[in-house]
Amino acid sequence: MIRLMIATETSLETLTYRKVDLRLIPFLFLCYILAYLDRVNVGFAKLQMLKDVGLSEAAFATGAGIFFLGYFLFEVPSNILLKRFGARAWIARIMISWGIVSAAMMFVRGEWAFYGMRMLLGFAEAGFFPGIIFYLTLWYPSRLRSTRTALFVSAIAVSGVVGNPISGFIMDKFSGVAGLAGWQWLFLAEGVPSILVGIWVYFYLDSSIAESRWLNAEEKALLTRNLEVEDRHKSQVRVMDAFKCGKVYALCAIYFTLMIGLYGITFWLPTIVRAFGVKGYLNTGLVTAIPYAVAVVGMICLSRHSDRTGERRMHYVLNVTAGGLGLILSGVFADKPILAVAFLSLGTLGVIGSMPVFWPVPSTFLAGTAAAAGIGVVNSVGNLGGYIGPNIPIWLKKYSNDPSIALYVIAAALFAGAVLAWVFIPKQLAPPARPEPRVSNNQRSTIVRSGGLQ
After folding, report:
1. Residue 7: which CATH number?
2. Which one of 149, 374, 376, 405 is separated from 6 by 20 to 30 angstroms, measured CA to CA?
3. In this predicted structure, what is the pLDDT of residue 232?
4. What residues in the chain have per-residue pLDDT under 70?
């Protein structure tokens, strides 16, 4: 009888989470593709806009990184406001505002205008990524969260697979159309969809389980019960709990090193590939898609294994260490393009693939508003690494003309993050126990008819 009850509950749970997956994950994935494209398409625009706008390489690196200063200032307040006003309204606001700013990048003329617009883009987008990470905690217990986070975060890699060739195509084919340069068309064409999807968010997304009209009462009860069982074990639930928690600041330091790697690669990947001798914007986009394609497959496999075992620390440490080695070897074999791209792919997997293993960790000890604030703190402080990463190649030019030196320094940052993760992430973050099965009247009747209850 007990086995039948558990089987019934497990079957209902599987079907319910599959229903939630189909409703939320593809849509959030689309939103993040647009967010990431609008954040990093400046790396592609750089190939053409420096001359038109009169930017130096150093000014570009400063502008690429200054985005994260605006992001840092508004990140935590934005995540707390999301908790207050609900995901539907707040995420819609974020997407519409960043889409407007991103499209307006086409009007940039001069260095200070570039800095100002990048700062505004950071203000506008602040809170989106940690907001979604927090939003997932409102639907999934931590034992199921790494794989869902991976599916969401894989938008970074997919935006590279799909977005880079599209960016190259736009710059190749639209240069001069209607008197606009290719980089202007790039910002316009990739900014407007964010505005449209932002409007869609307002009508599509539900802020909580209770609001959802596509779940029945039994499904809502199951999802809520799973979260309540997990939250009983968390003592840190207030905003100030997040700021007083030493674990939060350890995670900030780990994520800081990871973001140095992510944006050090992302903003300079088109330039690195061009240095291999690749000609044409479209061809550059196709080659830069390869590391991201490898990252998509690898990160899904890694996160599924992490969810099955409940282990996060070694998954993070080994993957990010392999990524650092990949970056070093891509520099060593820079004169052999095929090997260089292969090892650069390993480096990209090491960075992007580590994110879904990392993000379930904060919510294992934070809940409620503390989780919203804590995730915001980790993401905002960690993303300051996004200012450091793009500037590393510029700063190192004073000491060496070898472009591979930048890859070695980024790899060193990743190794430092691996050491911090080994020290500060607990050895085993065991998945919380499943709640005791509760059987509805209909299910109980079925069990009685089958002779299950004596």
Report:
1. 1.20.1250.20
2. 149
3. 59
4. 1-10, 40, 230-239, 241-242, 267, 276, 366-368, 428-454
CA-to-CA distance for 366 and 369, rounded, in angstroms? Answer: 8
Both tokens of 37, joined, read 């494209």
Q: Is the pTM of this model over 0.90?
A: no
Q: Is residue 78 part of a domain?
A: yes
* Residue 236 three-state SS: strand
Residue type, 444: R
DSSP one-letter string for 382-451:
HTTHHHHHHHHHHHHTTT-S-THHHHHHHHHHHHHHHHHHHHHS-S--PPPPPPPP---HHHHHHHHHTT
Cα dist. 109→60, 106, 181, 425 in Å?
13, 9, 13, 46
Cα–Cα distance for residue pair 34/163, rounded to 1 Å: 9
Which residues constitute the domain of residue 275?
Answer: 2-429
Residue 275: predicted pLDDT:
73
In this prediction, residue 440 carries a pLDDT of 47
Residue 339 neighbours by CB distance under 10 Å:
14
pLDDT of residue 256: 94
Q: In angstroms, rounded to a whole number, what is the distance separating the alpha carbons of residues 156 and 169?
A: 19
Residues listed for the chain: 454
User: Does residue 201 lie in a domain region?
Assistant: yes
In a domain, 435, yes or no: no
Q: What is the pLDDT of residue 400?
A: 80
Q: Is 65 contained in some domain? A: yes
Which stretches of 108-216 are DSSP H helices? 111-125, 128-137, 145-158, 164-173, 182-204
Q: Please return the burial class of 28, using the count of CB atoms within 10 Å of its CB with bins 0-12, 13-18 and 19+.
A: buried
* Domain count across the chain: 1
**Of 120, 94, 96, which Cα lies nearest the Cα of 107?**
120
Write the CB contacts of 2 (distance below 8 Å, at least 6 apart in sequence): none
